[in-house]
Amino acid sequence: MVTNDATLLRVKHDVLYEVAKAAWDGQLDEKKEEIPYRLIPGPQAQFRCCIYKEREIIRQRVKLAVGQCPSGKDSSNVVQVINAACEECPIASYIVTDNCRKCMGKACQNSCHFGAITMGENRAHIDPNKCKECGMCANACPYNAIAHLERPCKKACPVDAITYDEYGICVIDEKKCIQCGMCIHSCPFGAIGSKTFIVDVINLIRAGKRVVAMIAPAVEGQFGPDITMASWRTALKKIGFADMIEVALGGDMTAASEAEEWAEAYKEGKKMTTSCCPAFVNMIKQHFPMLLDNMSTTVSPMCGVSRMIKAEDPETVTVFIGPCIAKKSETMDLNIQGNADYALTLGEARAMLRAKGVELEPEENTLQNGSVFGKRFGNGGGVTAAVLQCLKEQGENADINVMKCNGAAECKKALLLLKAGKLPADFVEGMACVGGCVGGPSKHKTEQEAKKARDLLIGQADKREVHENLGNYPMDKFSMHRH
Amino acid sequence: MRVTICIGSACHLKGSREVISQMQELVAQNGLAAKVDLNGAFCSGNCVKEGVCVTVDGELYSVKPEETKGFFEKEILGRM
């Protein structure tokens, strides 16, 4: 991923690689304890105060990689704090810096409504007990001498789920956390991560189970113009997956089903939201439960494809691969039947490949399971475009007003409006990541970096329509609704 | 009521998917969708037990696929 430096990514990937390798060799239990020593050989510490702390952090990362909580506590949250790695960033949010000239004007003092600012020996001082964090002083200072310090994790969280304990260590409020994963890559110390299913997937492949991979539409273009969906299928088959299907096909399934729902709701004058983004669904469930009735009952593209695979062979294990963290929580919601058994991030899938000595190789762009509309599901506005296309294909009215929410903050705003009965639009497209799934927390390249390759690859796809494409699949063998 | 069923690979091989689909059916048949919340759980390290790891409001049980119906009647319906 992109926001933080390569060192952090290398450490995270090394842990996943070592765990995957030991699991492929069937020696995880024996080798697990050796990983911290192999990755941190010493005697000099590289990143932290000492090698013992560095090794403890690796130990906690290994726990996450095998699907356990790093601190040993019992918690079902997918997103977890790696306590040992949390650097207890300052919590006081406004501080006076060296830029302060203790000027005569004292705009800071004059602008503060709470009497929190006094003059110290060299510079102004903000009393944290009086400061209400309004930011007036920072705006007022003509020297930009007042800095706003906010923990990056806390700043990144769209639902205010990040708190801290009495020692200043980050704590996630699991009742609020929607598993979007925004905090994970925001932390410059890599102190937040997510539990992974890599060991489970490897064990089931090794046990001879039929395991099928389902690749998210957002993945197309992430690894340059030469790495196609066919490249992914070839690589995944080399490490023991039985097959691979594009979840873009599921995008077509979800769009067709939602189009039917929307057409009906529109006639009844009922406002509705999408239900394909798992973090958006979690946001509704946990923060706006009164709006559950407005949420589409259509299952996600991932679930649609999984149900199709399981309708043919219920014993098949289905594994989603994409840039998403929240998908992991969707697989754990067992109130939905037939959903994917496991979800992996791109980094986790690549660690599994590399641990077997397999890389993604350029291959001709011949594999296409979804229409272009399904493929664009992973872009902001893509769901709406696909649903409108379906309405047109069915001769329904496609002149409807959709509020396309780009990122969790916009989602929250739309849901607040819907709750208050003031939503101007007829429908809400909820995407918790900015840019849609292509902006997911575990992306390999940013939306902009990948755009050219993505447009090129999707441009090579044929122009089949959504219903025309679904005509090739056994849509009568499974339901596209939650219950 | 919060029910968790282990979805780790060891429990998978002991039939967790069978336990899950039976539970889903039983919850639906008894009209308990609003009362029983079925969740997956990562491996809790209790793999030595013969059955699949299931918890009901935090209490751990070991359930084999063929025992699912009886378990549901006793531990889930029984607590309603």
What is this entry, summarized?
With 483 residues, chain A is α/β, with parallel strands linked by helices. Chain A has helices spanning 6-24, 28-31, 35-39, 51-65, 107-111, 136-140, 152-156, 182-186, 198-206, 229-238, 248-268, 278-287, 301-312, 326-331, 346-354, 372-375, 382-393, 408-419, 447-459, 466-470, and strands spanning 79-81, 94-96, 117-119, 124-126, 146-148, 162-164, 170-172, 192-194, 211-215, 243-246, 272-273, 317-322, 342-345, 402-406, 427-431.
Can you describe this structure?
The complex is a heterodimer of chains A (483) and B (80). Chain A is globular, with a radius of gyration of 24 Å. Chain A is 39% helix and 11% strand. By secondary structure, chain A is an alpha/beta fold. In chain A, the strands form six sheets. In chain A, strands 10-9-12-13 form a four-stranded parallel beta sheet, with helices on both faces. In chain A, strands 11-15-14 form a three-stranded parallel beta sheet. Chain A has a two-stranded antiparallel ribbon with strand order 1-8. Chain A has three domains: 6-88 and 153-196, Alpha-Beta Plaits, CATH 3.30.70; 94-148, Alpha-Beta Plaits (2-Layer Sandwich), CATH 3.30.70; 202-477, no CATH class. By secondary structure, chain B is α+β, with helices and mostly antiparallel strands. Chain B has a single domain, classed as Glutaredoxin, CATH 3.40.30.10. A four-stranded mixed beta sheet of chain B has the order 2-1-3-4. In chain B, β3 and β4 (59-63) form a beta hairpin. The longest helix of chain B has 14 residues, at 16-29. The model of chain B has no long low-confidence stretch (mean pLDDT 93). The chains are: A alpha/beta (483), B alpha+beta (80). The interface between A and B is medium-sized, with 24 and 25 residues.
